[in-house]
Design a protein that fits this description.
The protein has about 170 residues and is of the alpha+beta class. The chain contains 4 helices and 6 strands, in the order H-H-E-E-E-E-H-E-E-H.
Amino acid sequence: MEAESPIQFPSATEPIPAFRPIDPRVVPMWRLVDVIGNAVIFAALLVVLFIPKVAKFGHRPWMFACWGSLLVATVLFDLWWRGRDYRAWGFRLDERVLEIRSGVLFQRMRLLPLSRLQHVDIRSGPFERRFGLASLVLHTAGTHAASIAIPGLDANEAVRLRDHLVAIGGDDAV
């Protein structure tokens, strides 16, 4: 594996950097999580809705055809959606602000002034660890929306980004 180049952070005199994408390994991870969640939902749907109907009314092939069609449509939608969701995520960092964008239907742009940053966490669940990923969670003082997470970062990049944010934090930040 090649050594990754260090993260480049522009100064205030340089042009605004382009958005950096999250790691592409997040797409198969999201898809795996969707498959597991949908399997639970569709198994429950089968047990609760269809099996009692079969016991009461006899075998009805159209009920299973509807269930199967809904399952196939859900899988195809998830495959398409996660690719779109990945392309919608990005972030950029300069000396004063971290800007995060996300959202396919409802696009969201969040600006985090680095002077407001309280602390930075790295979160890595079992699926993220399996794919070598982590989420960077940035906390600010304030309301219920006082945390911002950047999912799907390479675990090493998340550590480097956290360390950089801690290093540039002032007396009242990080």
